[in-house]
Amino acid sequence: xxxxxxxxxxxxxxxxxxxxxxxxxxxxxxxxxxxxxxxxxxxxxxxxxxxxxxxxxxxxxxxxxxxxxxxxxxxxxxxxxxxxxxxxxxxxxxxxxxxxxxxxxxxxxxxxxxxxxxxxxxxxxxxxxxxxxxxxxxxxxxxxxxxxxxxxxxxxxxxxxxxxxxxxxxxxxxxxxxxxxxxxxxxxxxxxxxxxxxxxxxxxxxxxxxxxxxxxxxxxxxxxxxxxxxxxxxxxxxxxxxxxxxxxxxxxxxxxxxxxxxxxxxxxx
Length: 269
Ligand SMILES: C[S@@+](CC[C@H](N)C(=O)[O-])C[C@H]1O[C@@H](n2cnc3c(N)ncnc32)[C@H](O)[C@@H]1O
Ligand SMILES: [Zn+2]
Fold this sequence. Notes:
Blueprint: E1 14-16, E2 19-21, E3 27-29, E4 36-37, H1 53-64, H2 69-82, E5 88-92, H3 98-107, E6 112-117, H4 120-126, E7 134-137, E8 150-156, H5 162-168, E9 169-180, H6 186-192, E10 209-222, H7 225-233, H8 248-251, E11 255-267
Parallel strand pairs: 4-7, 5-6, 5-8, 6-7, 8-9
Antiparallel strand pairs: 1-2, 2-3, 9-11, 10-11
The structure holds S-adenosylmethionine and zinc ion.
The site of zinc ion (ZN) has 7 residues, from loops.
Keywords: Methyltransferase, Transferase
Domain Methyltransferase: 88-199
GO molecular function, one term: methyltransferase activity
């Protein structure tokens, strides 16, 4: 059973033919590719918010080659350690949907899974993995899900809003939050910037009880120039390369790069 809610009035959405409707008459069509656009115009900063198509395609190639499956395994470990089947699970800022799809596949149970991203292109790409996930174009600052209906939220490298998370999670529900540490992909930073700034990550801590928080480090070997460029291009660093440094892209080949992330499991009360 789903817990989709109207992004305008927050009443439950009920399936009505090829649309979802709330009791106040707000209506949202299911797109041909099987996703629902629940992003309101006021929640959009631009016409095409979120990651762009090039970056999403690079992300898709990179993830499908399994380079970040170490991260997926950590998320799965936390999911199965803290929550039990069947779950109501939301993957916030799911991008092109790889992790959401793999979570569904690995859980292999009756969990109800939602993948939400502000990028319509990302969600359209995600529908190709499976139609068995509620793929939603939406904003993490106005999550179109009923109050206190989710067991767990996963949020990997994305924008989170504490109030909305608290509203959507059941009492004692969990959030599995994956964030980049300062030395994440440091080899790319060394290539691109004159000076590497080590920023504090205090601003991405959430105001809930920390159940577990640990660093995960791994060196991955990108096997081809294409793989190296894919990873670089799915990060913001790519867009910060100064003109006079562009030539480094031509010199790239296979590449060793450091994954350095933090996984924090919070529980709301
Ligand atoms: C770095 S990507 C991570 C995607 C995915 N979690 C992954 O790890 O492959 C960040 C994602 O957050 C999405 N995003 C940014 N702001 C958002 C918002 N306010 N609400 C929902 N998604 C948002 C972007 O469109 C992008 O797909
Ligand atoms: Zn409504």
